[in-house]
Amino acid sequence: MLAHCKKKVEAKDYGDVLLKTLGPKTRTAANLLLGLYAFIGAVSFMMILGEELKHVVDKGFPENRFSKNELLSIMVAVYVCPPTCFRTLDALKYTSTFGALAAVYISAVVTYSAITIDGNTNGDAGFHACSIDGAN
Prior knowledge:
mainly alpha
C-alpha cells in the first residue's frame, strides 16, 4: 500500500508520502514518533547490554574488577560515541548486515532462554529469573 501511495503522489520516501497526502503536521508527528521509537529502542538495548555484559566479561576474565556501569560506559565510549562524530553515516552501511544478523541472534538467544531452565527444555515454557523453589 505504501509503495502504491509513493508512486501515485510521486514521493521519494515515507516522509514525502505523509507530507503530500496528509500535510506537514502529520509528517512532523510521524518523525517525532519515529525518533521516540528509536530512542526507546536504544535505551532498551543499553539496558539489556548493561545487564548481560558483566556476566560475559566475568566468564572470560574472572579477575575483572569493573562494575556493570563501568563496563557499559566503556562500551558506549568505544562503540557508540565515535559514529556520532562522522560527517555522514555512509561508513556504517557496510555494518548494517552484521547489525541485522546480531539482532536475529539476540532474539533467538532470548527466545531460547525464555523457554528453557538451566539449559534443559522440560516443557515448562516461561522466563524464570530464579529457581522454582525460590533458592538462588
